[in-house]
Amino acid sequence: MSGLISILADGIAYGMLLFLFSIGLSVTLGLMRFINLAHGAFAMCGGYVAVVLLNGFGVPFLLTLPAAAVVTGLIGVVLERSVIRHVYPMPELQQVLFSIGLAFAAGAVANILFGPQQQPMLLPDWLTARVGFLGVGITGYRLFLVLFGLVAAGLLMALFNFTLFGARVRAAVDDRRAAEGIGINVDRLFALTFGLGAAFAGLGGALAVGFLGLDPTFPFKYLVLVLMVVAIGGPGSIGGSFAAAIAIGAIDALFKYLVPEVGNYVIYALLVLMMIFFPRGLAGRAA
Q1: Which domains does the chain have, with CATH numbers?
Q2: Which pTM value belongs to this model?
């Protein structure tokens, strides 16, 4: 029983990482109608920022997280203002090809700067120590991921559902001309929204290094899982993405433990069933 609880705890922590990875894509796809398959590149960027600060300059782990988010968010804003905004009106196929090309370019730059090897991360002792939880011992890192993900989900849902900023984003997407007519600066709003999505991707990447590792192939390793979270949760839905990410992480971990022969394929079967019976995702929003 204790082994099962430990596996479930790992799965939930993994799901929290998937949530932090996917939430930026959910925002850009569901609220901005932009198919950003380069989203993993922003997560990779945050991971490298955290590794360089922690291992190279001795910056405390907790300070590397906001640094990774801010740096990645600023890069996202610069890219959005310089090139990505020109892609918004293009057909979906051009958006997909552009963003995939951007991800390959980011991976090549990372390979040149840091090499193809996995990047180690020197975590503090309080994250590597084991903590008693429900009668089993789990690492402080897993527990930290769970708590951090819960806080992030609550803050994002409050931001997009109960603030003027969230209302403006929804208004700009639904009817850009009307939004501009009442004084909303849509270009600046989209830049901030894209930067926010990139910042959360960078934050997720920084948190993931100690759990999933980091190398230049990172933008594509977890792209399918991130797309699954967005599709199952519903594009633009913070709550839907949160529920989908936790479910995918927990189900993946449990079935790999209980039925290792087919465990790797269960979540893909889950995706097929969800798309058949809930084609608009848990939140009822079409991709």
Answers
A1: 2-277 (1.10.3470)
A2: 0.89
